[in-house]
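Regression test case RT-17, inverse folding.

Input:
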């Protein structure tokens, strides 16, 4: 498994897979974070998606599974997809069998309090959400071009160990926008990081069983 973007979900998923015997590598953008993750036993490469290095891209060829957890950048979009041809050639020459892009429920926009599922029409209202939707299609198109099926998971507000309303209170930090909405008794979408990982692994198992 190669994880582009070792953030909160990427780290949790990497540790779960490693405990199950997987070979896992990933990327981050700062030397400090890389050192911290390596101290925890994770194999992490320093990687700037705006200026991808051939060494890191070539490493990707050795992996059968790719999880993309890199957010778009305002004014740019998905930084990896800016190098589409390089990605395409890397994936064609590699061993990739499974690709998943982690998106956001923000692509649905303001739904007026309606219950939303994957069949609900995406209608993003802010620039970042619009970039998310474009990135989704970009990764789906790229996977189609190289002959593999891609998965898109639209995630709500993510919580888990060290990342909850209780932790915010303990740290005496300001409430996030989602926490403010809950105080105002508005419905929000929340998902635990462990449940995200279970869904990802289920997706992999379905692919392997075919």
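Golden output:
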């Amino acid at each position: 498994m190669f994880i582009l973007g070792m953030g909160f979900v990427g780290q949790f998923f990497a540790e779960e897979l490693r405990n199950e015997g997987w070979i896992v590598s990933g990327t981050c953008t700062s030397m400090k974070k890389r050192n911290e993750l390596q101290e925890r036993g994770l194999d992490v490469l320093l990687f700037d998606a705006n200026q991808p290095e051939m060494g890191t891209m070539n490493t990707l060829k050795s992996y059968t599974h790719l999880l993309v957890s890199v957010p778009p950048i305002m004014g740019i979009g998905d930084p990896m997809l800016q190098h589409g041809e390089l990605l395409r050639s890397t994936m064609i020459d590699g061993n990739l069998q499974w690709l998943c892009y982690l998106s956001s429920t923000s692509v649905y926009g303001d739904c007026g309090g309606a219950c939303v599922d994957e069949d609900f029409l995406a209608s993003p209202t802010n620039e970042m959400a619009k970039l998310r939707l474009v990135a989704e299609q970009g990764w789906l198109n790229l996977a189609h071009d190289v002959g593999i099926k891609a998965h898109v998971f639209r995630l709500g507000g993510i919580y888990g160990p060290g990342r909850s309303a209780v932790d915010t209170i303990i740290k005496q930090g300001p409430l996030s926008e989602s926490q403010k909405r809950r105080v105002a008794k508005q419905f929000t979408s929340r998902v635990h990081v462990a449940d995200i990982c279970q869904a990802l692994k289920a997706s992999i198992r379905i692919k392997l069983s075919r």
